[in-house]
Write a structure and sequence with these properties.
86 residues; elongated; mainly beta; four-stranded antiparallel sheet; 44% strand; single chain; 8 strands; Immunoglobulin-like
Length: 86
């Protein structure tokens, strides 16, 4: 069983204007096959035309495209027992 990954670089708060992209980044202690999940409030996010979710090694990135006022709120990233929010 692989050891759990931990979050070594927390999310940072991002301020964006309507119509801009908002980019959130989190870095883990190691590459993992554990499920990592992004949330807007309590809603789990999927990669689609509005959101881009990227994983490059230990770096996990969420891009919210052309944000609107409805996108305002807390973004969180969860992996295993660890959570980071902005």
């Amino acid at each position: 069983k692989e050891p759990a990954a931990t979050i070594v670089e927390e999310l940072k708060d991002v301020t964006s204007y309507e119509g801009e992209d908002a980019v959130f980044e989190c870095r883990l202690s190691r590459e993992t096959t554990q499920d990592a999940q992004w949330f807007l409030g309590d809603v789990p996010l999927q990669s689609n035309e509005m959101n881009e979710i990227r994983v490059q090694g230990m770096r996990h990135t969420l891009i919210l495209r052309k944000v609107t006022l409805e996108d305002c709120g807390s973004i969180s990233f969860k992996v295993g027992q660890h959570t980071s929010a902005a």
